[in-house]
């Protein structure tokens, strides 16, 4: 990879763009849709984004499909405008492209391609009965977020749409289908729909048979294998941008059809790629609206652990993921309060400087955050045994309330739920981790989140120069990999993408580790506070 600080030669970049020596990655995150165009040295040439938010409708979190297309077109238009402003070119072609999105969830369509019920996102935790029954049947954890859990819960609930289902997929799979006509899915994203056989690189046939034999499933007019998309490993042919797809992406008609598309992936897979964590014994922590810690395994976990999602890398190798539904939403809300205060005083401070100032203050706090407690639960959190969430900040009268301790408690609480599943892998299953890489915007403030995470996991945390690039950049790299599919994905990342990448590593500080453990014990002991808040505060008001 080119040095992140290396200046881009505008003339050369313009030539590359005009010749199609580029790759485009677009990722649908929980709060932002981001598009990134990279060159053959993996440098970002242009980008665009669109902010959006999920909606709570009838007790379920969703995004309307018209907002999916509005957001996609807006993010692409912003990228095309960036190309025009930076290089004086209309963006008429790209060499390859790919789409990724938040994993899991439920998008179900009938035989005419019509959506049967509103998109049910990963954030919903109303599938507990399905999770428990399927996990016991398969002796393999089926998290509440997984697509098959949503389908089976709909069966158990006797929802009238179920017999009409002809196809269901994830958000990335849906967008890819509409742009290419292909009902396929990257194997990493597919592993969040139904268990994968990592040897055969396909859905587990034995578990498909077990699912078919469930009486209420057998009574349906469809076969489960016919409803699922085809899993593809990174580098496999996933189709091309059709003329209709080009118009969906770029309604101006400027973008030409024909670009090859990479298999659509989930945000876990693009996080692995963006952190060069696809080899066994490597891992990453990807932090955004939700957070997950991922470790690539040398073999499947030996026991059933509800705290760990058994997923795969984009190459199909087994991985364990500790996934928490909540991370930055509460943190961002508190930062917004400080922004309002700054504005009220007449102070002028940029958003980036505000975050950096507040985050840095956390390093000055007491090791255990002074006795403060915070729960960042906007939504339900399986790892904490919560079907719903309510953000709560609490403290005792003898706690040491200060800005430093407050921000430290915010960051500690954000990392606490994901630690539960990580401890299961490393302490109960003996999973070995050679390197763990932090990834996401929270790591752009030097040292702070990296140091906090090192304390939480009691492990060295590496942050690379690509830490802020995000999943869209990782998806663009997967799109570029279509031209290098003769190489193993891990070798391609090592030898080409990250060969010159710069990084910093934070070792765990013993005082911070002890402080985090004290906070974490208080966090777990105080969970009845959160449950009382759920009982007392209405979900919608």
Structure overview:
The chain has 541 residues and is α/β, with parallel strands linked by helices. A 7-stranded mixed beta sheet has the order 16-17-15-14-20-21-22, sandwiched between helices. The protein has a 5-stranded mixed beta sheet with strand order 3-2-1-6-13. Strands 4-5 form a two-stranded antiparallel ribbon. The chain is globular, with a radius of gyration of 23 Å.
Protein traits:
alpha/beta; 19 helices; five-stranded mixed beta sheet; 39% helix
List strands and helices in order, with pairings:
Layout: H1 10-19, E1 23-28, E2 32-38, E3 44-51, E4 55-57, E5 60-62, H2 65-87, E6 96-101, E7 107-109, H3 128-138, H4 147-156, E8 167-169, H5 171-180, E9 184-186, H6 187-190, E10 196-197, E11 202-203, H7 205-212, H8 215-218, H9 224-227, E12 230-232, H10 243-249, E13 265-266, H11 267-274, E14 282-287, E15 291-296, E16 309-312, E17 318-324, H12 328-344, H13 351-362, E18 373-375, E19 392-394, H14 403-428, E20 435-439, H15 448-457, E21 461-464, H16 470-480, H17 489-497, E22 503-506, H18 510-525, H19 527-536
Parallel strand pairs: 1-6, 6-13, 9-12, 14-20, 20-21
Antiparallel strand pairs: 1-2, 2-3, 4-5, 7-8, 10-11, 14-15, 15-17, 16-17, 18-19, 21-22
Structural class: alpha/beta
**Rg over C-alpha atoms, rounded to the nearest angstrom:** 23 Å
Number of strands: 22
Intertermini distance: 49 Å
Task: Give the percentage of residues in beta strands.
Answer: 15-25%
Question: What general outline do the C-alpha atoms trace?
Answer: globular
Please, what is the oligomeric state?
single chain
Which regions contain 5 or more consecutive residues with pLDDT less than 50? 1-5
Domain Carbohydrate kinase FGGY C-terminal: 284-479
Organism: Bombiscardovia nodaiensis
Domain Carbohydrate kinase FGGY N-terminal: 24-247
Pfam family, one: FGGY_C
